[in-house]
Amino acid sequence: MTAVPMHPEPTTDPQTVRWVIPAGTLPLVGPITGAPSALGTMLHSGPIAAIEVEPQAVLIRLAPDHTWTIAGPRIRDALGTALGHPHQWRPATALTEDDLLHAALQDVLNGPAGDYIRSHGGEATIVSAHDRRAEVRLSGTCTHCPAADFTLHSRLESELRKRFPALLELRATEEPGRRRSGPAWLPLRRRGA
User: Fold this and answer.
1) Whole-angstrom Cα distance, residue 27 to residue 55?
2) What average pLDDT does the segment 76-83 reach?
3) Cα within 13 Å of Cα(149), Cβ side
4) 61: which of 16, 108, 119, 175 fits an S-S bond (Cβ 3.0–4.6 Å)?
5) Rounded to a whole number, what is the distance in angstroms from the first to the last CA of the chain?
């Protein structure tokens, strides 16, 4: 069995550590009620108070009387083993494929692909995520942008497929607004004589 790469990141809560893992490692998101092997045992009767899975991370919160200094190495080893058995994890609530698609798309929009869009004055929000198809609404400077299609497919869709390989389609709608009838011209200042 190949070890799944992971590394810890601190959170604002000193009792919680975010363990970053490759996208798509676990086929679920949200709070966990059961995990394989020692990790599951620690969740039910040990130092772990809660586990929550994100598309690219596992958040583990310690019980009040425990510290990462003491429990951390055991939890790291148990998590590494548990990640090798992705289908033995149990979510707190039943998840649908639509839930997984929505979570994966939200993760993409919260990450570097969404940062890229926001850095140019645009915004992308989820309209729908069902039947392996997703739709986002582009607004701000993305509205009527000639590069929006490239951004949609080269940045958003490629990242979404990493997290949700069963994706059939990603499409975008634009925020209703005024459509330009021609090119936008910027005035140039006259050079001084």
Assistant:
1) 9
2) 97
3) 2
4) 16
5) 74
Residue 97 in tokens = 């494929």
Q: Is the dihedral of CA 60, 66, 67, 71 positive or negative?
A: negative
Q: Token digits for 98?
A: 């639509």
DSSP track, 46-106:
SSEEEEEEETTEEEEEE-TT--HHHHHHHHHHHHHHHHT-GGG-EESS---HHHHHHHHHH
Q: What is the pTM of this model?
A: 0.65
Examine the pLDDT at 100 and tell me if it is beyond 90.
Answer: no
Architecture per CATH, 7-91: 2-Layer Sandwich (3.30)
Q: Give residue limits of the domains in the chain.
A: 7-91, 97-174
Three-class DSSP category at 8: strand
Residue-wise pLDDT tens digits, 102-159: 888 988 888 888 888 899 888 988 899 999 999 998 888 888 788 888 888 888 999 8
Q: The domain 97-174: what is its CATH number?
A: 3.30.300.130
